[in-house]
Recover the amino acids of this structure.
């Protein structure tokens, strides 16, 4: 796969996970997606992903032929509907991001040809999701901030601060809806397999909230102990992250975030309905729970887009609802065809033709 290196020749150490040092290097030197893709860290993460898939198939005694028959029997029109519902989330995410940018005092002009028009923001989002699907450690978030800097002359650290705020909204919204759907589905007694998912989600929410609280209340201390070369970057990042939230726009942010995660649940609902002729019947709350669990697991920075981890874990969660293992794998693979592989293919095409990459 040939990807040009026009994003910048100085991308820092391609093996570093996203962090302050890497972010500063990206801000000063650029971001080379091709360099990140061919780095040892990325190659190892893909190797790990495929090892997890092989281990899961052997551990669950998956019959590939039976799974393929289930997949072939799926209703293609309902799968296409699931695909359409999934892609509806991108304009909603772009609208939410524009609200965060404006609130962080980023000069957003939403004209038709503006770098901050809705189509442009959707393009940055889609390219960053493509990057997250092919490189580990959520480096697509740094790529998105770089795209905003490259196209809109916006401070990288300010853009990155709004992306942090967006991630906080996503995690709180996702985890809140996961709790509600889990309570409706299981009641007070959660199955053992789901407790790990809830624990992971709770840990992420606590970590992000602690980071936000630390920025708000411990800023002077953080700046004193921080290396001098990171202070300017951190100051702009902190300002954008904290300014992104405002009581005036909070209702709109909550509404858009809730709509995004409901649509994520609807995506899997249509995949499940596509398999209905195979006797797969799950309640709406159960479907939303599985879809949100899938999205939560993509936050693991071990493999690109949670590849391997999501497939194995979601299949196990489906079996908790009494779903046949082979049928569960078929549902998982069809769903990942929509929310992972369509991004890889579509993102690669967009990357080749985009003037904003």
């Amino acid at each position: 796969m040939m990807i040009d290196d026009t994003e910048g020749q100085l991308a820092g150490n391609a093996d570093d996970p996203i962090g302050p040092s890497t972010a500063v290097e990206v801000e000063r030197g650029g971001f080379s997606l091709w360099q990140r893709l061919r780095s040892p860290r990325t190659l190892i993460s893909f190797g790990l992903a495929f090892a997890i898939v092989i281990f899961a198939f052997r551990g669950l005694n998956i019959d590939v032929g039976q799974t393929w028959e289930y997949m072939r029997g799926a209703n293609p029109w309902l799968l296409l509907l699931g695909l359409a519902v999934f892609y509806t989330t991108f304009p909603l995410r772009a609208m939410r991001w524009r609200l965060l940018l404006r609130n962080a005092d980023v000069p957003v002009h939403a004209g038709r040809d503006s770098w901050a028009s809705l189509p442009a923001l959707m393009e940055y989002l889609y390219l960053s999701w493509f990057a997250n699907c092919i490189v580990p450690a959520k480096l697509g978030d740094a790529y998105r901030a770089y795209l905003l800097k490259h196209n809109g002359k916006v401070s990288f650290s300010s853009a990155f601060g709004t992306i942090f705020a967006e991630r906080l909204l996503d995690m709180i919204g996702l985890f809140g809806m996961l709790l509600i759907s889990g309570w409706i589905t299981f009641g007070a007694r959660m199955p053992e397999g789901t407790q790990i998912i809830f624990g992971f989600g709770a840990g992420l929410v606590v970590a992000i909230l602690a980071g936000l609280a630390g920025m708000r209340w411990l800023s002077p201390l953080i700046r004193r102990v921080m290396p001098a070369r990171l202070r300017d970057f951190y100051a702009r990042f902190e300002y954008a992250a904290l300014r992104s939230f405002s009581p005036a726009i909070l209702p709109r942010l909550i509404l858009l975030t809730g709509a995004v995660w409901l649509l994520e649940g609807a995506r899997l609902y249509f995949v499940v309905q596509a398999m209905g002729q195979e006797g797969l019947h799950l309640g709406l709350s159960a479907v939303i729970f599985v879809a949100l669990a899938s999205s939560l697991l993509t936050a693991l920075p071990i493999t690109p887009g949670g590849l391997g981890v999501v497939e194995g874990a979601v299949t196990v969660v489906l079996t908790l609802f009494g779903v046949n293992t082979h049928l569960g794998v078929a549902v998982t693979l069809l769903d990942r065809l929509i929310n992972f592989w369509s991004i890889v293919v579509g993102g690669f095409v967009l990357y080749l033709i985009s003037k904003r990459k």
